[in-house]
Amino acid sequence: MSVKQWFVSLFPSQRSRPRPPGPGRPLPVCFEADFASAKQWVEGRSWAYPDGGPVNPGDNKLDHLVTDPAFCREGVFRAERRPHGLWNTGLLTTEGSEEGFQVRTGDVLDVRVRLPEGTGAWPSVWTWRDGGNEVDVFEYHPDNPDLLELSNHVGGASHDYRDASLHPGAWVSVRTEFGARSVVWWVNDRRVFADGRGVGRGWEAYLIVNLSVSAGRYHPAPDRSRSALSFDVGRLRVHRP
Description:
There is one protein chain. It contains one helix and 17 strands. With about 240 residues, the protein is mostly beta strands. The protein has one domain: Jelly Rolls (Sandwich), CATH 2.60.120.200.
């Protein structure tokens, strides 16, 4: 009997203890996004917006959510200028869908996106439930071209991550562990932030993927000459121990 076998025989719990999550140690996949699936996703409405949408001016957004599948169902999230100042925008959420998938404490979300080009674009992957439970996997604004905003609104923590690999048009991978005591982010397989706050043991939330448009208070609104914006989501998976 080897030393390792002897140790496991004395401490059986070591056999089933899950490995810590991280880019080199994948966990089983419990959710893989199919943006065309009506069972997984609902388009064009979210209770994260007042009365479920379609507008949210209080958050300094020019959004007018639409149910047109061309704005979100192909993994390309789009925004197009309307005649009177607002923009038609694409949003998908698991809230209200047939499957009603929710991320929960201990899950790890892995997403790969192409950052948008064009001032005013405001892409995000985030969570929401019952007026809160919000964790922003990332937010991005092209006027800060090398910066991702990472935020845990449940625990009250955030971090602005800067790197030369971040720029409009770049493909970026973000991996987020929703830990009870700490939410941890990796960007392009590099561990960049652990908030030391976490989401607590009983946390659950729906997923939201969308492209908002800035209204100009915190980030510049789109140039007058621009009529369309977009960002791509090439992969979105949730791993669960």
